[in-house]
Amino acid sequence: MNALIMYYSRKGRTEQLAKTIQSDLGCDILKIEPDKPFGNFVSVLSRESHDRNKPENGTHAVTAVPDLSGYDVVLVGYPIWQTEMPEFLAQFLEACDFAGKTVIPFATCASTGIQPSLKRMSTVVGTDCDLLNPLCFGAGHHDDYRSWLNKTRELAELAANKDDDRDQDDSDASDEEDGNA
Ligand SMILES: Cc1cc2nc3c(=O)[nH]c(=O)nc-3n(C[C@H](O)[C@H](O)[C@H](O)COP(=O)(O)O)c2cc1C
Fold first, then answer.
1. 44: left (phi over 0), alpha (psi -120 to 50) or beta
2. Whose C-alpha lies nearest to ligand 1, atom 22?
3. Which H/E stretch holds residue 16?
4. Which residue's alpha carbon is nearest to atom 31 within ligand 1?
5. What backbone torsions phi and psi does residue 132 show, to the nearest 5 degrees?
6. Which helix H or strand E contains 166, and what residues bound it?
7. Across the strands, what pairs with 30?
8. What spacing in Å lies between the alpha carbon of 26 and ligand 1's midpoint?
9. Domain boundaries, the chain
10. Could you name the CATH architecture of 3-177?
């Protein structure tokens, strides 16, 4: 499967979910690391507030922006912080090129769910991709993992076929340019 999982995890829950998904899908995985590790709950809150207000001198990812050109599907995982995705991750995603991709967000949380974070997510990944099939696990919020996984496999298949159709269209167009019937 031409899929990449990109994720951040402070305490390991999102990482555990990312690794389960990787083993079920058999795809690549990339952990996004901040320049300074996040500490306890209170320090995360104060750094998040700073990062959201003054991003220029806030937390940045040290992970290099990946080349996504070889992937049809990109899964993006994060912990929910104050109903949102971590700000440094949002800024990292802004630098990635999601054009033409199927983007699947997943998160772990206490109870809020992933929905409130998807507005920001859709802004940072841009309008030129399909943002679909979100998954969230928390104490008070549990999506059905098996049906999510089946849907993800279906979406990956559709995305791969879309790619094949595009390649065929390109080759038809170049045949026409060359005067081939
Ligand atoms: C600063 C901070 C803010 C949080 N805000 C929320 C929240 O708004 N809603 C929620 O359901 N969980 C919230 N949580 C709980 C985390 O989303 C949850 O513990 C998550 O599974 C941690 O993932 P990790 O182990 O990958 O870091 C918050 C946690 C922290 C540290």
1. alpha
2. 79
3. helix 13-25
4. 41
5. -140, 160
6. helix 145-177
7. 6
8. 27
9. 3-177
10. 3-Layer(aba) Sandwich (3.40)
